[in-house]
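Example record

One chain of 185 residues, shown exactly as stored in the release files.
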Amino acid sequence: KKLGHGAFLQKDLKQIQKIFQAMRESTNKPCSVKLRKSPNAIKIAKLAEKENFNTIAIHPRTIQQGYSGEPDYKFALKLKTKTKLPIIFSGNVNELNVKQTLKDFDFIMLGRSAIGNPNIFANLTNSKKATFKDYLKLAKKHKLFFRQIKYQAMAFTKGEKNAKQLRRKLISAKTIKDIEEIYKK
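Predicted structure tokens for this chain:
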């Protein structure tokens, strides 16, 4: 905040323009920018367009909102009408709104909604639903750290009837074997 980095940089259009120019001059690879909702978001989109950027990701919440509150979907739609660049929508994309969001925007960015919920992807393609057992098999194959596996085990409890009890047990799990035993029951 004090240094004016990240979303706080959105107030300084001259600095943003310098950064965009430096990025474009230094590479032939695609360039993109991720914005939050701000009074300057449309101006920044125009700067990205001017510097031949390839896409813009919009997270339509203000700095003050952080990740709480509802994303301003209408603001993101307005931004889309103000630029020729493809727009990636980011913010509360979930199983209930993913299909509509894909219709309204060029791309979507999934973050926290996919943690412990890989089925958000299966729902789009009518694929087989993944289970924690499937996840665990892959996690072992790719030698993930225990803490990563435990984190996902906790996230997979979302929507389960006995989620609270599962999480209580998972908190005390010390090994992958412990987690497997908890999920067997």
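Notes: Residues 13-26 form the longest helix (14 residues).
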